[in-house]
Amino acid sequence: MEEVIEMPDGITYLSTLSGGLDSALITYLIMKLKPNSKMVLSSFCLQHQQNHNFDTVKKIMNYLDYTFPFRIIDHRIGFVRDIEHAKNGGRSKQTRELLQQYDIHGIISGFTINPPELMIEGRDETRDAPREWRSINQHGIYHYQPFVNRDKRYIAELYQQYQLQELADLTVSCEAEQPPRPCKKCWWCKEKHWAFGFY
Ligand SMILES: [Zn+2]
Predict the structure, then answer these.
(1) How far is CA 2 from the centre of its chain?
(2) Residue 177 Cα, ligand 1 centroid: separation in angstroms?
(3) 86 alpha carbon to ligand 1 midpoint, in Å?
(4) Where are the beta strands (DSSP E) in the chain?
(5) Is residue 43 within 8 Å of residue 17, measured between CB atoms?
(6) What are the structural domains, with CATH classification, of the chain?
(7) Given phi > 0 = left and psi -120 to 50 = alpha, else beta, which region is 110?
(8) Tens-digit pLDDT profile for residues 136-184
(9) I need a labelling partner for 12 at 20 to 30 A (CA). Which of 35, 39, 157, 177 fits?
(10) Could you read off the pLDDT of 55-100 as tens digits, one per residue?
(11) What is the distance in A from the centroid of ligand 1 to the CA of 174?
């Protein structure tokens, strides 16, 4: 949390709200601990998965807007064909548009490091190594990733500390394309179970 404490107040942040636990938590914490800050939210829905996270990001946004009235300036939802489309342009195009439209001075992400346990299937090895929690991105804006060197159990502790079970219940971590969700098989399901003890 030292990283979060170090982050500035009184600015407008851009947060990518994915529908998962990490981005919901970091957005909540910034809004709670930086009371003079404003928030622009950016989300993506995958068309080939029937926009499965659309309702999820809407519910999280409503929760945050209700908890912190008049602090969210905008919630932009982009629709992309698939994850590759999101990575190759869709995401940075939406970010660029929001940066042009609003006076944003920080981008926040809730990325975490992988669990130390040897969970192999589906593991993204780029999340194994320690990374800089604060950097300047391609748009010349500070990019804050205060949990980038913490694992999901740290996220679970913060959910407990701030009594955020209601928020946790709104999030969906599973990336399965077909129901049932949670599938209990994908990487995100396994990581959540490892940290929270439930799917
Ligand atoms: Zn899953």
Answers:
(1) 19
(2) 9
(3) 20
(4) 12-16, 38-46, 72-80, 104-108, 134-136, 142-144
(5) yes
(6) 2-196 (3.40.50.620)
(7) alpha
(8) 988 899 999 999 999 999 999 999 999 999 999 999 988 887 778 889 9
(9) 157
(10) 899 999 999 999 999 999 999 998 887 777 767 767 788 899 999 9
(11) 4
